[in-house]
Design goal:
Helices cover about 25% and strands about 50% of the residues. The chain has helices at about 15-25, 30, 120-145; strands spanning about 5-10, 35-45, 50-60, 60-70, 75-85, 90-100, 105-115. The chain has a 7-stranded antiparallel beta sheet.
Length: about 150
């Protein structure tokens, strides 16, 4: 059974700016500390990355996974589904960008993950919390630093 987590954060930038940062998948390696390498295999008809392989740091080792991105609800939602993973059988998620108070954006990050190997619950919860908070903190820093 997949574990699910959702995190919310307010960002001082427009929803369009937030979307443009996460949709620029190839530059994610510049601001997402755990991402070590990105390879784009396919693009959609607008040139956006559709099928992407990542190499990332996870659980004290390197992991590789391929995600299929869905831009059908852009620029409000960017979602993805795992197509292949070495330690994951599910790694599906989304970013949702809603106008917030003033010029800001309410960002919701949702992730469903399932690992191939069993890991004790407390370790999974700690890792999940770290992944979610790091992803949101790094996105916020990137968006606000250049908005």
């Amino acid at each position: 059974m997949a574990d699910q987590a959702t995190e919310h954060m307010s960002v001082s930038a427009s929803p369009e700016r937030c979307f443009s940062v996460v949709a620029d998948i190839e530059r994610m390696v510049e601001w997402a500390a755990d991402i070590k390498e990105i390879v784009v295999h396919e693009r959609d008809d607008q040139g956006r990355p559709r099928l992407v392989t990542f190499r990332a740091a996870a659980f004290g080792r390197s992991t590789s996974y391929t995600l299929a991105y869905d831009f059908s609800e852009a620029p409000r939602i960017l979602s993805w589904k795992l197509t292949k993973g070495d330690i994951t059988t599910k790694l599906d998620g989304s970013y949702i960008f809603e106008p917030g108070d003033g010029a800001g954006t309410d960002v919701t990050y949702h992730l469903e993950a399932e690992l191939r190997v069993p890991i004790p619950g407390f370790i999974k919860m700690r890792a999940q919390s770290r992944i979610m908070s790091t992803a949101m903190r790094e996105l916020k820093a990137r968006v606000e630093s250049s908005s």
